[in-house]
Design a protein that fits this description.
The complex is a heterodimer of chains A (207) and B (235). With 207 residues, chain A is an alpha/beta fold. Chain A has one domain (2-206): Class I glutamine amidotransferase (GATase) domain (Rossmann fold). Chain A contains 6 helices and 13 strands. A 7-stranded mixed β-sheet of chain A has the order 2-1-3-4-13-12-11, sandwiched between helices. In chain A, strands 6-5-7-10 form a 4-stranded mixed β-sheet, covered by helices on one side. The chains are: A alpha/beta (207), B alpha/beta (235).
Chain lengths: 207, 235
């Protein structure tokens, strides 16, 4: 069963619709102690970093996510949810992340946000066994190529070379990652739930 | 450059609007959004075309309807977001970005500050409906009037990640977006979305100094002559 973390901010409804379109069972997780019941935990994110992390801490999810990570439960972070997996987030004066992935979340070197579609291709077999061995096979597809939708001002900057990562396919954003996988954690900077057909295919591949 | 579509939505129905005052019913929201999803539209802008007579009950009723919407495309929403209580209601919507218009004419920027805190700067979009004739003026929906350019609080534009320039005179027509607004307004087109009269290839602005970040074609999926499909075919 897939669990979607709810802390009152973040685009929960889009995630529910995304899972429904792919005929995947889901629950909304309001109590951090319930995290243990789920084979995949989704941390969605739309909002500002300081408010989101504050809500995660006050609700108890911040600590329980660390416990779930230690237990090896699989987690998927989307946009701001992915940024929280890193060590440090620069937005709003700076905040400590969960530290599952070594790296920082820094302001993009562009005037406005990166809002729009960019190319994305992905080979499932590039992921490590830590993710693949727990995978549920609802799709035999292993490769996809198309476009994904981004909407962000800050980006994922890895400092760990020993993880799977692909960079954003755009000249001035190429140091920033679009997808990172480390052991039981996947961080997606783009919005798969709003990436139309590719988003649905990606979900089925990653499950 | 993104190619999006505008949907006008109020009291549970969608409308095609012409010249900012004639509304023709288009049908239910889900049907139209599903069509746009099938077209693989780049993004969808849903606007409540409300004026000074908007009520909390109407706003709430439309929000409840919008919560049911299912779409795989990026969506921006605005129209009548005028106080902080309404801002909090938006978190239940399946949308990424929110559009603000009449607040851009106010002195107070509290609403924009809170919106940025709640949803992030990347989620804040400004909407400036304008007309050039008889002289350049902007529409302030809260007072239901076109006002001179100097009534716009330009400091508030710094809160906006993108600004939709909505040509009221060309709205609903397939050509003629008044690109001179960029010169008159002294805005960077790379931060702007052009809307109103951009459904023809000659108005795509591609590879020109006026090339915006995105264009919005009025939603006309039920009307072949102005359809997005038609626009794509010409590209």
């Amino acid at each position: 069963m897939v669990g979607i973390i709810n802390v009152g901010v973040g685009n929960i409804r889009s995630i529910k619709n995304w899972l429904d379109r792919s005929i995947v069972n889901w629950d909304v997780i309001d109590n951090p102690k319930d995290l243990i019941n789920y084979s995949l935990i989704i941390l969605p994110g739309v909002g500002s970093a300081s408010l989101f992390i504050d809500r995660l801490k006050k609700s108890g999810f911040f600590l329980e996510l660390k416990n779930a990570h230690t237990r090896g439960q699989r987690m998927l972070g989307i946009c701001l949810g992915a940024q929280v997996f890193m060590d440090y987030l620069e937005e709003d004066g700076g905040a400590e992340g969960l530290g599952f992935i070594k790296g920082h979340v820094l302001k993009l070197p562009i005037k406005n946000s990166n809002t729009g579609w960019l190319p994305f291709s992905f080979n499932l077999n590039d992921l490590s066994k830590a993710w693949l061995q727990n995978k549920v096979s609802i799709s035999r597809k292993t490769k996809i190529k198309g476009r994904v939708f981004y909407n962000h001002n800050y980006g994922l900057l890895l400092t760990d070379n020993n993880v799977f990562s692909q960079f954003i396919d755009c000249d001035n954003l190429s140091p920033f990652s679009s997808i990172i996988q480390k052991k039981n954690v996947i961080a997606l900077q783009f919005h798969p739930e709003k990436s139309q057909e590719l988003g649905e295919t990606l979900l089925k591949m990653l499950l | 450059m993104r190619t999006g579509s505008v949907i006008l939505f109020k009291n549970g129905y969608c409308y095609q609007s012409y010249g900012w005052n004639l509304f023709r019913p288009l049908g239910g929201l889900q049907n139209i959004v599903s069509h746009l999803d099938k077209y693989l539209i780049d993004d969808i802008t849903i606007i409540r075309p409300v004026r000074d007579n908007d009520s909390s009950a109407d706003f709430l009723s439309d929000i409840e309807e919008l919560k049911k919407l299912k779409s795989s495309s990026p969506i921006s929403f605005g129209g009548g977001i005028r106080n902080i209580d309404q801002l909090h209601l938006l978190s239940g919507l399946p949308f990424e970005r929110f559009i603000f218009s009449s607040i851009l004419f106010n002195e107070n920027n509290k609403l924009l500050e809170v919106a940025t805190k709640l949803y992030g700067k990347q989620a804040i979009v400004g909407l400036i409906p304008f007309k050039l004739k008889p002289k350049l003026s902007m529409f302030n929906s809260e007072i239901n009037k076109f006002v001179p350019l100097d009534k716009l609080n330009r400091n508030h534009l710094d809160f906006c990640d993108e600004i939709i320039l909505y040509d009221c005179e060309r709205e609903g027509f397939h050509s003629g977006f008044s690109k001179e607004i960029i010169d008159r307004f002294k805005l960077d087109p790379k931060s702007c979305v052009f809307s109103g009269g951009v459904a023809e290839l000659k108005n795509s602005f591609k590879n020109t100094s006026y090339a915006p970040k995105a264009i919005n074609i009025e939603n006309s999926v039920l009307h072949r002559e102005y359809s997005i499909l038609n626009y794509y075919e010409k590209l």
